[in-house]
Every structure is written in C-alpha cells, then in structure tokens.
Amino acid sequence: MRKNENVFFSVIRSVTAWRRRAASRLVHRCWDWARSAGAVTAARPGPLRFGRIGEGTRLAFPQGTIFGERWIHLGDHCVVGEQVTLTAGMMPDLDLGPHPVLRLGNGVVLGRGSHVVASAPVVFGDDVYCGPYVYVTSANHSYDDTGQPVGKQWPRTAPVEIGAGSWLGSGCVILPGARLGRNVVVAAGAVVRGEVPDFAVVAGAPARIVRRWDPDTGWQPPLRTPPPVPIPKGITPQQLVALSELEDRAGA
Question: Where are the membrane-spanning stretches (predicted)?
C-alpha cells in the first residue's frame, strides 16, 4: 500500500472517531437537558396533577407509572428517583373518594425503580429513606379459588404505615397490613408483614427482628462497631481534607 493511501485511511479514521465523540457529547447533552426539563415539581408539574406536591419536592425524569394523582399527596422536600411508580387505586380513572390514598411525609426519599402501589391507604412518615427498587403495596394477590388463575382473583388489601425516620434497604418488600414504627431499619431484600416496633432492625423473608433498642440496656444485641462521629457544624471541605491528612500522618 502506498504511503499516501495510509495517510488517507488515517484521516478517515480520525474523522470517524471525531464524529462519534461529537455524537456522544450531543446525545449526553440532550439527555441531561431532557432529565432537567422532564423533572416534576410543584412549579412544573407537567401532565401530572397530584392532590398535593410540596415545596422543594422533585420527581426525577423519567418517571415510572403514575396514576390516581388526585389521591396522592407528596410532602415538602421529597426526592423521588427515576423510574419510580406511584399509583393510587387498582387502575386509572377510578373515583377513590374524598381522602388521599397515598401520602408521603416531608423529606421522604424514594430510590430509583421503587414501586409504591396503594389500593388501601399507604402512609410514609417524615424523613423515611428508601434504597433503590423498594416495593411497598397495600394489595396482594389471593389464591383461594383453585379454579381461577391467581391473577384474576380479587386481591386482599390492608393499609400500610411506615413510621417517621425509618430506612428501607434496597429491594425490600413491604406487604399489606405492615405497620412499621419510628426509626425502623429494614435490611436489603427483607419481606415485611405485620407490626414492627419503634427502633428495631428487621431482616429476612419473612422478616424477623434481629436487633432492638432497649431504654435500659441500649441496643440488643450490642452494636459491633462504635457510632460514627458526626462532622462538626461549620467545618469547610478544606478543613476536612487537612484533618484527613493529619490523621494519615499520625497513623504512619
């Protein structure tokens, strides 16, 4: 192959690579714009008409399945991740009466891909944090009639309540009738039904209490690690870096 042919193909490859890089940058810029423009807030609700959407609350784009918005009340400063499903009622366009069916308190965080399905009332207290792909439902399939497919049988429903300050780990399932107290920790992948008292940790399928706070003796069984030291108020990022470097020198 001649030298000028090598140069020609080298130029073609360079132009092709430049075009691909430019196309990639354009796609990402367009997607970033779409995510910003498609986010739902009280000031920019888009096509959604929630019964209430509080100040500072934001639903990331793209949203999951959402219907029955009139019976969904979202508190202030909630964060709803991408592809989160929020539904009130078993299907769209039902009249569910005068009261909200799904309520999020203030400061609730729903992780990416989570589902909250409310046929009977579902209530989240303030500052409940959920990891990704959490599933909370107040309806469950019944299988009483062996002559009918399970999916065609009328479901059982029961209200669900999640106490303020609780943490729901990734992939956990909260079943109809569950009532979680304050500051309950649900381990990743747990399946919860029934009542869970305040200040308890549950894990497993079905979930069982594995740790609980006792006012006289503290956490039982005792925690394996000491509590983390909070960052003092007013400290700057530069001071944190300097402190980290100082600790590294002291440990060397």
Answer: none
**Could you give the CA distance from residue 128 to residue 156 in angstroms, rounded to a whole number?**
26
The whole-number pLDDT of residue 219 equals: 94
Say what the pTM is: 0.85
> By the 8 A CB rule, do 207 and 190 touch?
yes
How far, in Å, CA of 212 to CA of 50, rounded? 37
- pLDDT tens for residues 113-131? 999 999 999 999 999 999 9
The torsion defined by the Cα of 235, 239, 241 and 242, in degrees rounded to 10, comes to -150
Residue 252 lies in a domain: no
CA-based torsion, 28, 33, 38, 42: positive or negative = positive
The closest of 135, 37, 124 to 78, measured between CA atoms, is 124
Q: How many domains does the chain have?
A: 2
Q: Do residue 83 and residue 114 come from a single domain? A: yes
Of 87 and 231, more confident: 87
Give me 166's structure tokens: 């609780």
- Which residue is associated with the tokens 């909630």? 78
Ramachandran region, residue 173 (left: φ > 0; alpha: ψ -120 to 50; beta: rest): beta
**Residue 232, pLDDT above cutoff 90:** no
Q: Which residues contact 142 (CB under 8 A, 6 or more apart)?
A: 150, 153, 154, 155, 156
The residues, ordered by sequence, that sit 6+ positions from 119 with a Cβ below 8 Å of its Cβ are 89, 90, 101, 137, 138, 139, 155, 157
